[in-house]
Amino acid sequence: MNYVIGDVHGCYTELMALLRKIEQQDNDAQFIFVGDWVDRGTGQMATLLWMLDNISETGKYQSVRGNHDQDAWDWFRTKYLPWRKWNQNCEKEKSMPPYSEYDFYEVVQNDFAHNMNLLEPIMEKLHTLPYNKLIEVETKNNIKIKYRIAHAWHESREDATNWQKIQANLYVRKFSIGNRENPDEIYVHGHTPTIVQDYYMCGNKKSERPGMISYRENAINVDGGCCFQREMEQFPCMLCGICLETLEEFYCDTVEN
């Protein structure tokens, strides 16, 4: 069966626990990640090395591109590589070009120690991830369902430009009512953690579960904000997975209701 995993953000221990839990139940499991491999988490190097070794276009582990993946690539290509050209020994670490407000540059400097033999293939892999994937599955009741997996959202308007589609896949937050524009597909996305008040306060307050998988009309949010678990102790902040055929939910840890 097919499973979608939410934003990893360097949460390597939780990633391994979640994959192990699902694969123990389903030896033939196929996975699609919603992207955002870099930034925030404490295990970014291990996560990126796993991503490099395992993610492929059509294999067991697949992924779409997240905005943090795109931002990391843009920084690497337009700022880090030119800086590296003039600082080949990387001695002037304090002069490294800034990388927005996130911490991937620290991982490049401290964990990878500017090792281009590792960094170049990792960044190239991030850059080649598709913006979205469309998958059709069949339920046990022989019902066929189309799922559109994208990091943030999906732009289905026929008159939308390619740029608008890319921006929607990477950055747009359009979760308040769900997907009414394209009811033939169910969108599965991350990007906006379900712990964010703007998210869980705009849904059905009685059924919202911050830090876990949440639902809107024809849309499923699988970003439980795992990387925020040390900051948001009032919520579970889970790394989330969902089976597309059954809608069974999986979490890296046990949730006590």
Question: In brief, what are we looking at here?
Answer:
By secondary structure, the protein is an alpha/beta fold. It has helices at 12-25, 44-54, 67-86, 104-111, 116-128, 162-170, 197-200, and strands at 2-5, 30-33, 61-63, 132-138, 144-150, 186-189, 214-216, 219-221, 240-243, 249-251.
Account of the 3D structure:
- The protein has 257 residues and is α/β, with parallel strands linked by helices.
- Helix content is 31%, strand content 16%.
- It has helices at 12-25, 44-54, 67-86, 104-111, 116-128, 162-170, 197-200; strands spanning 2-5, 30-33, 61-63, 132-138, 144-150, 186-189, 214-216, 219-221, 240-243, 249-251.
- The strands form two sheets. It has a five-stranded mixed sheet, with helices on one face.
- Strand 5, helix 6 (162-170) and strand 6 (186-189) form a beta-alpha-beta unit.
- Helix 2 packs across helix 5 (116-128) and helix 3 packs antiparallel against helix 5.
- It is globular, with a radius of gyration of 18 Å.
- The mean pLDDT is 91.
